[in-house]
Amino acid sequence: MTISQKRAAVILAAGKSTRMKSSRSKVLHHVGGRSMLAWVADLARSVGAEKIIAVVGEMNADVRAEAEQLGLEIAVQEPQLGTADAVLAAKDALSGFEGNVIVLCADAPLIREETVAASFKALEAGADVVAVGFVPDDPGSYGRLIVENGELLKIVEAKEASPAELAVDFCNSGMLAAQCTHMFNALAKVTNNNSKGEYYLTDVIEITRGLGKKAVAVQASADEVLGVNSRTDLALAEQAFQQRMRALMMDNGVTLRDPESIYFAWDTYIEPDADIGANVVFGVGVHVETGAVIHPFCHIEGAHVGPNTQIGPFARLRPGANLAEGSKAGNFVEIKQSDIGKGSKISHLSYIGDSKIGENVNVGAGTITCNYDGYRKHQTIIGDGAFIGTHSSIIAPVTIGAGAYLATGGVITKDVPEDALALGRAPQTNKEGWAKRYRTAQEKRQKEKRQKNKKDK
Ligand code: UD1
Ligand code: CA
Fold first, then answer.
1. CB of 321 within 8 A of CB of 304?
2. Residue 227 C-alpha to ligand 2 middle, in angstroms?
3. What is the value of pTM for the model shown?
4. Which of 10, 96, 327, 418 is the most exposed place for a label (fewest CB within 10 A)?
């Protein structure tokens, strides 16, 4: 990306979120596994904004904390007197900044990078102020963009619009960009003489034009400007994000057997020629390498899935699961914070936690690493080529040497040397004829009981 002029962003996040009916501020609700605020901050970063200011209300302590964590500068807007007033709150943070600034809304997480980049480019190409418009199915209460001969004349809020203006279907997304000094010069002139008694950011267009400057509109698609105000909107945003990810994955060469039933997080990274079955959910922090096959009904989060691995069906990979090439986690297998070496197989009904498993290890069905003593987690180490018998309970901390063999059903409490056999179960004793004697005694008792009952009647 070549950026000829400096870029900054102001993210509006001071609103109240009454319609979410949530104890959490609206912009902290997640889409694709991260907050809407994080989405917008990331967007600003990816178009090269070197200063990003989040405008928060005094009541939004949670937003402020997240914004700080995201490395944003904070401006407080209190009280909230409208969108122009909100941007003005960022004035001090931008004093001395010579470049272009875009205003983004923290509750519109789906804006595309290209749209924001196009706004900056329009400024770099000579426009003094740029608004981002879109054509919704229902223009409703959106502000209307009045464009003539390629120039944006003004934005009218629906409440102030004439019938002719209301008939315009090119609507204001809420995003607006300008050269920084023009922006704040214009903002200083905005009044609240309107039906809402608010300071409208949209007035910046007419004010700037009044100074002989040029305003233009950039068009976004309707699906990216969706603003989230309610849980229903949040679900719509999630759906839109998932659709985008599914398309992107398939474009990148990933096979999705039933795209509509596969869910991704914002950072899901899957290499070409991985094959994903139906009903698979990816949480954040997953990397799947090429040739991996993920069978239906898996839940995968914070995991690295190596090349040509086999996962599921019904596997759960939790954070820190790291499966090397050609390894396998089969049905009803849960793996957490563990390295599984090349070619190792955990095929059925097992829990592997806090473990380091070498290469070509076979872990039998029903094996459990007992990693937690109620206070601390302990590690299990299994060397290359070890054979873990079915239904082994491995009580960590413990090390099983390479090539060792655990007999089935063992409770393993001590380290096992390389190539040793560990028998960790009570020896079996057979009692000749016991079952027959037992059955005879029980049958005799039942017969006597029936006879007694008959007599008593
Ligand atoms: C705004 C636009 C409208 C556009 C619509 C798109 C104005 C005057 N109108 O209207 O043209 O079609 O967005 O959704 O800009 N906010 C603050 N502080 C404030 C007021 C708002 O931070 O004092 C934040 C809100 O939290 C929200 C954003 O700014 O994220 C937009 O504000 P909102 O009140 O929703 O504006 P609309 O009336 O929807
Ligand atoms: Ca709104």
1. yes
2. 7
3. 0.92
4. 96
Residue 348 annotated in active site: yes
Indicate if 255 and 312 belong to the same structural domain: yes
Residues 193 and 263 in one domain: no
Residue 435: inside a domain: no
Domain annotation covers residue 25: yes
Does some domain include residue 445? Answer: no
Phi-psi sector, 187: left (phi>0), alpha (psi -120 to 50), beta: alpha
Does 215 share its domain with 245? Answer: no
Q: Which of helix, strand or coil describes residue 359? A: coil
What's the structural domain count of the chain?
2
Q: How far apart are CA 300 and CA 241, in angstroms?
A: 18
Alpha helices in 78-179 (DSSP H): 83-88, 113-124, 163-166
From the CA of 424, how far away is ligand 2's center (Å)?
66
**Which residue's alpha carbon is nearest to atom 12 within ligand 1?**
142
d(CA 111, CA 218): 13
- CA-nearest residue, atom 35 of ligand 1: 15
Rg of the Cα atoms in the chain: 32
E strand map for 66-128 = 73-76, 100-105
Which numbered atom of ligand 1 lies nearest the CA of 155? Answer: 11
Give the model confidence (pLDDT) of 65-99 as tens digits: 999 999 999 999 999 999 999 999 999 999 999 99
Catalytic residue among 287, 348, 378, 391: 348
Residue pLDDT, tens place only, 254-303: 999 999 999 999 999 999 999 999 999 999 999 999 999 999 999 999 99
Among the atoms of ligand 1, which is closest to the Cα of residue 86? 18
Which domain does 102 fall in, by range?
A: 7-225
258 shares a domain with 201: no
* CA 112–ligand 2 middle distance (angstroms): 19
